[in-house]
Amino acid sequence: MKSASICAAALSALLALPVQAAGITPVGPMFAIGTAQAPALGSSVAMRADGSFAVAWYSRAGVFAQRYATGGVPQGAAITVYTPPAGKDVRGQPTLSMNAAGDFALAWVVEESDNVAVRTMWARVYRADGTPLGTAFRCDDDTHPLFANADRNHALALDDADHALAAWSATVPGKTGLLNGSPGVQGLYLRRFTAAGAALDAAAQEISGAGTLLSQIDSLSASAADDGHYLVSWSASSLEVITTPSPIGSHQTVLQPAVVHLRQIDSSGRPKGAVATVLSSAEEGEGMLAPRTAMNGSGEFALAWAGQRPLAANFVHSQAYSAAGVVKAGAGVDVPRALCCNNSNPVVAIDAAGDYVAAYADRLRVYMPGRLGNMQPLSAEFSAALAITGAAMGSGNQFVVVGADLNGAEDFYGQLYSFSS
């Protein structure tokens, strides 16, 4: 639990700088996320090109944000984004998106306190100075309600016109599953909103092409480019019924390994081309879990995901793409890590030059395909001394990560870094 006070000696030790690795340097000490009244339970971050950034977190008291100037100096007081009314709770960490002007948007999930099967997705948009551009608004709808039996199944991207693209998974109406219509086929739905919450699209549209007997969609992420187009990524697995020869017939239900999909969306909210499937390694039976994408203003993007092999350790993979969606030469395949929950949730951030950072568990690596022209990591694994939950990059070889400390106190912190070749 968050302690009310920490003695000076303990605080000094806790915020001590991590050991420096070649090419990556911590900038200043760690900074605490959350307040005494609203201690953080989960956190995310977004950064502008000039190095200013915002951090979002949730607690039992609601959803909050804090703005920071370049160098990590807090700007103003913490912002109360959403306070749940009686009978409702915030579920999971909020997502956060920032455009080139520094305006930012948050999205979060609200569930009924006495019925966790009822969840809804909400969002709110702010100017760079912290002024709200409207009240909180609901993103999903009663026809396509947020799928309640999964986490990490919502995403939000804010473009330079302050239009917010909301993405969420929901059961496809009219498509049933294996038994009595449950759990059904999940689809991926999108809808755009103005900063004030007015819908720009007449209805939510399904973009995954859901049509399997039973599909499961997880780990959504979304990004926006300067020209107003978006990138959405997700992981999907499906159940396949296999009939084996026998006098009476024999049916076996097999869960296929999850794969990662990408789809680009134009500035009017229409899909650009077909769904792209990311090829995993040739290792038999490898599942692709928890993808995360990040896109810069010119449309270049980076992707990170966890590869899960049966009876083996997870691998964390990363890859860079051109604005046209073409894989850049080489591949950033990080070393295997011991199998654990944190390794299934990598994060990624990219800068204007196309260089990117991939983070997983308490480790991170920087790749510089934009300036060095190859996918070799800048250095060996670097320990951030945090269980990383979010990362963001600006210009000038700088990035920031946020996450939970590793001492078991469940406190959340952020850390700024610089890097060089």
Radius of gyration: 21 Å
Q: How many DSSP helices?
A: 2
Strand percentage, roughly? over 45%
Proportion in helices: under 10%
Distance between the termini: 40 Å
- Poorly predicted residue ranges: 1-22, 335-343
Average pLDDT, all residues? 82
Give the overall form.
Answer: globular
The structural class is: mainly beta
- Can you summarize the main beta sheet? 5 strands, antiparallel
DSSP summary, beta strand count: 29
Quaternary status:
single chain
Structure description:
The protein is an all-beta fold and 421 residues long. 3% of the residues lie in helices and 50% in strands. The chain contains 2 helices and 29 strands. It has helices spanning 8-14, 369-372; strands at 24-33, 42-47, 53-59, 62-68, 74-82, 88-98, 104-112, 115-126, 137-138, 154-158, 164-171, 186-193, 205-206, 214-224, 230-244, 250-255, 259-265, 271-278, 287-295, 301-308, 315-321, 332-333, 347-350, 356-360, 363-367, 382-383, 386-393, 398-405, 412-419. Strands 14, 15, 16, 17 and 18 form a 5-stranded antiparallel beta sheet that branches. The chain has a 4-stranded antiparallel beta sheet with strand order 1-29-28-27, with no helix packed on it. A hairpin with a 5-residue loop joins strand 6 and strand 7. It is globular. It starts with 7 loop residues before the first helix and ends with a strand. 47% of the residues are buried. Residues 1-22 and 335-343 have low confidence and may be disordered.
